[in-house]
Amino acid sequence: MKPTSSRAARRRAQKSNTSGTITVADIAARVAKAKVKGAGKAQEDRAKRILTSFLQTAESYGMPANEVVAEMASGKAAWRLGHAVRAEILKSPPEAVTKAACAQGCAFCCILSGGEGGVITGFEATQLHKAVSPLAGQPDGRDWHAAACPALDPETRSCRAYDARPMICRSFLSTDAEACERNAAGGTEKGAGLLGNHLDYLLIHALCRQALKGITQVHSYNMAATAASAVAGDDTATGLAKARHKPSALETACRDAVRAAQA
Ligand code: SF4
Ligand code: SF4
User: Fold this and answer.
1) Which atom of ligand 2 is nearest to the CA of 149?
2) How far is residue 255's CA from residue 263's CA, in Å, rounded to a whole number?
3) Domain spans, the chain
4) Residue nearest to atom 6 of ligand 1 (CA)
5) What is the pLDDT of residues 59-93, one digit of tens each?
6) Averaged over 114-123, what is the pLDDT?
7) What is the mean pLDDT of residues 141-151?
8) Which of 125, 80, 114 is nearest to 218 (CA)?
9) Cα(196) to centroid of ligand 1, in Å?
10) For residue 20, what pLDDT is reported?
């Protein structure tokens, strides 16, 4: 059967990558053409500008293309860039931050009842799994609430993987802890949400997936399943294999974040 043009393109891209001829400029050209389903043009353009600036910096420092590809595929690029945007936001913190009710021991946001369990990148899943693995066999968050993140301490309700907590945990906050409690029980009250950096981070990871099509796969992972695998004693490779999402999870997370930003 004659290959379709897209199959032929994928093969050409794979060949180019295998022979080591892909350049950072080639990747930037792919990013320029990439599209994220459900994102508005302004949101997509912003994420592209951030990712393109990362690629320009990588190129100017002579970072090899295979390392750039690896950072994009693992989600390390989205993580770094999401952090940089978060740091900018926190220089002039919005009211959502200055009036946040968040405090140690308040953990209703660690109840992960959605089917996707919290969307995280491979880089974050690896960090989280390594941080939680030493706690294997101990009581975990699910001893407090059946849908709580296993990285949670069930007694103190504090995160036991604080330094390795994913972007979603660093971006979520609320001005009303009681509303969080009601939302954790299925409510839909306002007052809680994700800082703007989270949308950039998700869209950048989705752009990386689109730009690297035919070169390598870009996955997302279920945060709760990653932590559950670590407390069950799995090694990291097994844990990530168990926690890997279907591609639609990242698309859904992007779409939901876009809608939340527009609300
Ligand atoms: S987001 Fe809500 S549940 Fe989480 S720490 Fe803040 S107030 Fe508490
Ligand atoms: S990683 Fe930590 S902060 Fe994030 S949901 Fe789990 S317990 Fe909560």
Assistant:
1) 6
2) 12
3) 21-262
4) 102
5) 999 999 999 999 999 999 999 999 999 999 999 99
6) 91
7) 97
8) 125
9) 17
10) 58
